[in-house]
Here is the input.
Amino acid sequence: MASPTSWEFYKEVETKTLWVNICTQNLEGVAISINKWWKTRYPAYKIRIVSKKEFELFFLYALGQAPIFKNILAGAFSCSG
Here is the structure.
């Protein structure tokens, strides 16, 4: 199974959403690990798997440092692999 350092996440409490970026190229076991972690630690939250770029943009927006990205982040994200 993949180690927790294979991904990074930001927990958005207001919308109960977990923003997750997979940090490794070797995806073996990562999906199972993330799913198990998510279902045991944050079962009431939705999860969004996003690219590194989307994760960084969202993180800056969440910190209030990038309000111009609000419209970019309004759409749904998908895993960009």
Notes: DSSP finds three helices and three strands in the chain. The helical segments are 30-41, 52-62, 70-73.
